[in-house]
């Protein structure tokens, strides 16, 4: 009996040592590595639950923050510190993010961004659509500093450009704001010849590459997904009316 099985066992040993089994083992190892990487990425992402509200002073960040949380209008002042609150995204309250409103003053905004950037799941960059033409260079400068930051580039949080104050007749459209920002960011990219410094004060070792070399900049070249929406934290009826934040709220649900 044993002698009759020997040829079959020998054939099985040859098969186990052959290229077919080796291919299967390589495939299994590749699957295992992919799964572990996926779990690592998902774990890092799930640990980032903050949505940062950024923008220049008077862009309407704080009123937008208040409207999202309570739905009510309130008078606001220029922020000198951060404000945070849990924002429920669904009726059953099972999904939430932490909204963090950061100061927009030039002397404060980068130090507060430095404090919270690692926790950012998403960023809402609020633009004053009425004052945009006058402030476009300052808006682009701040946005450039955000986009070339090493932590932001690595984590690639979803980015929304919220074109606020659309209730005002002279407000610029989201399309025009996108075109002007791409133009200004392209100019900044060209003129920044010195090696930038990261928000933590350490040198990055050379100019950060914003977009694709040799091509005019556009937002599709960034590692994170960038979207634009039009909104109004004040609302078309002023203090007594409802805010127009539907597009922003849908985006928050999507990125949560």
Automatic annotation (TrEMBL):
<dbReference type="InterPro" id="IPR027417">
    <property type="entry name" value="P-loop_NTPase"/>
</dbReference>
<protein>
    <recommendedName>
        <fullName>Signal recognition particle receptor subunit beta</fullName>
    </recommendedName>
</protein>
<dbReference type="Pfam" id="PF09439">
    <property type="entry name" value="SRPRB"/>
</dbReference>
<dbReference type="InterPro" id="IPR019009">
    <property type="entry name" value="SRP_receptor_beta_su"/>
</dbReference>
<feature type="transmembrane region" description="Helical">
    <location>
        <begin position="20"/>
        <end position="38"/>
    </location>
</feature>
<dbReference type="GO" id="GO:0005789">
    <property type="term" value="C:endoplasmic reticulum membrane"/>
</dbReference>
<keyword id="KW-1133">Transmembrane helix</keyword>
<keyword id="KW-0812">Transmembrane</keyword>
<keyword id="KW-0256">Endoplasmic reticulum</keyword>
<keyword id="KW-0675">Receptor</keyword>
<dbReference type="InterPro" id="IPR024156">
    <property type="entry name" value="Small_GTPase_ARF"/>
</dbReference>
<dbReference type="GO" id="GO:0005525">
    <property type="term" value="F:GTP binding"/>
</dbReference>
<keyword id="KW-0342">GTP-binding</keyword>
<keyword id="KW-0547">Nucleotide-binding</keyword>
<keyword id="KW-0472">Membrane</keyword>
<comment type="similarity">
    <text>Belongs to the SRP receptor beta subunit family.</text>
</comment>
